[in-house]
Design goal:
Layout (H helix, E strand, L loop, with lengths): L14 H12 L3 H4 L1 H8 L2 H28 L6 H9 L1 H35 L6 H15 L4 H29 L10 H7 L2 H12 L15 H30 L2 H7 L3 H46 L6 H4 L10 H17 L2 H28 L14 H20 L1 H12 L1 H15 L1
Helix pairs in contact: 1-8, 1-11, 1-13, 3-4, 3-9, 3-10, 3-12, 4-10, 4-11, 4-16, 4-17, 5-6, 5-16, 6-7, 6-13, 6-15, 6-16, 6-18, 7-13, 7-15, 8-11, 8-13, 10-16, 10-17, 13-15, 16-17
Protein name: Amino acid permease
InterPro entries: AA/rel_permease1, AminoAcid_Transporter
Subcellular location: Membrane
Length: 442
């Protein structure tokens, strides 16, 4: 296994910070804005609930698999580092390139776009305000993450605690005061156009995505070999339970056909209908805070990939991109780089479309990483601080889930898939150009 360069980032993150980043990064816009999309594709409330559970099981299997791999490579960079050590420098570069050029900025833009929809509904603004509000939020959270990593981690803890309020309110109100049967409602007239159960599960995976980003902070954890697997497994399990309860609560309060008609506005409607004008506004604010926490987790973690790649001279302008502030050890230029790309994505893509393409792109490399557990198991000399339970069944479930995601999105949106694959492949000439320049300066 390849030696990693000495890290200069501060090892200051403990279990609660790590857990808040995992849960806070996962629970954001997906569970609040994907209810309609999942229901439309699944065709019935029962299948929609199963889609959320199935997506959670796939994610948990993926998390358990990556937890074993990550415990053996506790370095800053996460998936970028795993793929390189498993498959070589070029594949590692493409995994990093995919995250910093495509996936990271796109996922930030997508969540910010959904959050702006919620904000315009809350304040009664026109849709023209969506992009400015999303941009202001990204710049504000980006500014926080230019400070020491403890600031971004503290914001994650606060927003994670804050988001539990609207989540608990929706679950309790829906389960106790909802009048509809959460199971057995049908929306047959839209199920055929929606894409079926496969596309429904794909939509849920956007809601579950983000769990692996804690691996990007491996070089900043106090005891990453033990802490990283614990944070991933506990975090994903908690989110799976929460998502299932929220879905049942929403379906008990709103009939399926109304969720279909309301689309992205279903959560705002539920908040106002359940808790009145003032209570609904407070609940909507809680959901917005939830999304801000998700954006914070992503702006905190993705620049660490840029930093890790720049330290290896894998990117153009690696010297400024690897710069750390003298006191706080914060990768400020890398953070600004991610913010600029997210802004570009926000201006040119619809957030719902972005979310599906993000899941497809990252699962290309997730699936490669899942296969890596079998490669590492063959090396008896490598110490394994964490072992995936029920091996090899759990990794095989993760692999099957990854292949399922890829096939579903290829059939659902071949043009978008080709576009995002094209952006990733462009990384190859960039890699060789950067290495050529490096050789000239040696």
């Amino acid at each position: 296994m390849q030696e990693q360069p000495q890290e200069e980032l501060k090892r200051s993150l403990g279990l609660w910070s790590a857990l808040s980043i995992v849960i806070g990064t996962i629970i954001g816009s997906g569970i609040f804005f994907k209810q309609g999309a999942v229901l439309d594709s699944a065709g019935s409330s029962t299948m929609a609930i199963f889609a959320w559970i199935f997506g959670g099981v796939i994610t948990l299997a993926a998390g358990l698999t990556i937890a074993e791999i990550g415990s053996q490579m506790p370095y800053t960079g996460g998936l970028y580092v795993y793929i390189e050590n498993l498959y070589g420098r070029i594949w590692g570069f493409l995994a990093g390139w995919m995250q910093v050029i495509v996936y990271g900025p796109a996922i930030i833009a997508s969540v910010a776009g959904f959050m702006a929809i919620m904000m315009t509904n809350l304040f009664g603004l026109s849709s023209d305000w969506r992009i400015p509000l999303a941009l202001i939020t990204i710049l504000f959270i980006g500014a926080l993450n230019l400070l020491e990593n403890k600031v971004g981690a503290a914001f994650s803890v606060i927003t994670t605690a804050g988001k539990l309020i609207p989540i608990a309110a929706i679950i309790i109100f829906g389960l106790l005061w909802g009048h509809h049967n959460a199971f057995g409602q049908t929306v047959g007239q839209v199920s055929q156009a929606g894409g079926g159960f496969g596309v429904a599960v794909l939509a849920t995976l956007f809601g579950y995505d983000g769990w692996i980003l804690i691996a990007n902070l491996g070089g900043e954890m106090k005891n990453p070999q033990k802490l990283l697997p614990k944070a991933i497994v506990i975090g994903i399990t908690a989110v799976l339970v929460i998502y299932t309860l929220i879905t049942v609560g929403v379906l008990r309060f709103l009939p399926a056909i109304m969720i279909h008609k309301l689309g992205d506005n279903a959560t705002s409607y539920l908040a106002m209908a359940a808790f009145g004008q003032m209570g609904g506004k407070l609940l909507s604010i809680g959901i917005i805070v939830s999304m801000m926490g998700t954006i914070n987790g992503k702006i905190l973690t993705f620049p660490r990939i840029v930093y890790a790649m720049a330290k290896r001279h894998d990117l153009p302008f690696s010297r400024p991109l690897s710069y750390l502030t003298p006191k706080s050890k914060s990768p400020v230029v890398a953070t600004l780089f991610i913010i600029v790309l997210a802004t570009i994505m926000m201006l040119f893509f619809d957030p719902d479309h972005l979310s599906d393409l993000c899941v497809f792109t990252v699962y290309c490399f997730y699936t490669l990483a899942f296969f890596g557990i079998f490669i590492l198991r063959r090396n008896k000399l490598v110490k394994r601080p964490f072992s995936t339970p029920w091996y090899p069944f759990v990794p095989l479930v993760a692999i099957a889930g990854g292949i399922f995601v890829l096939i579903s999105e290829i059939f659902n949106d071949p043009e978008g898939v080709l576009l995002f694959i094209g952006i990733v492949v462009v990384g190859l000439p960039v890699f060789y150009l950067v290495k050529k320049i490096d050789r000239r300066h040696e």
